[in-house]
Design brief:
Strand order of the largest sheet: 1-2
Bound molecules: zinc ion
Helix content: 55-70%
Strand content: 5-15%
Largest sheet: 2 strands, antiparallel
Number of strands: 2
Distance between the termini: 42 Å
Number of domains: 2
Order of helices and strands: EEHHHH
Radius of gyration: 17 Å
Length: 104
């Protein structure tokens, strides 16, 4: 039996994460991709010229959309498992009502 693949960032094995994406020299799990997106969104990049910032917008926009899709699919999955809006809201740090309105 081969060794389990692991996320190169957090060390979780392929059995502990929903998705593990292969790279040339390592792997990254879906949770770490989400963390990376959040970090990129929250921290100012080093100064770039206008054209470089403009050129980065499509990839940034695609990443935001992809992250939103991942979040929605996870919430949908939890609802399929009968997990309550109360629990989902608590996990996201919002009210039951806010979670329901955002993801129903
Ligand atoms: Zn990871």
């Amino acid at each position: 039996m081969g060794r389990l693949l692991k996320c190169s960032f957090c060390g979780k094995s392929e059995k502990q994460v929903a998705r593990l994406i292969a790279g040339a020299h390592g792997h990254i799990c879906d949770d770490c991709v989400g963390s990376c997106v959040a970090i990129l969104a929250a921290t100012p990049p080093h100064p770039l010229d206008d054209d470089s910032v403009l050129a980065s917008l499509p990839a940034c926009n695609a990443a935001v959309g992809a992250a939103r899709d991942v979040l929605q699919r996870r919430v949908d999955d939890l609802r399929t498992r009968q997990v309550s809006w109360e629990q989902i809201g608590k996990a996201l740090g919002v009210s039951r009502q806010a979670a329901w309105e955002r993801f129903r």
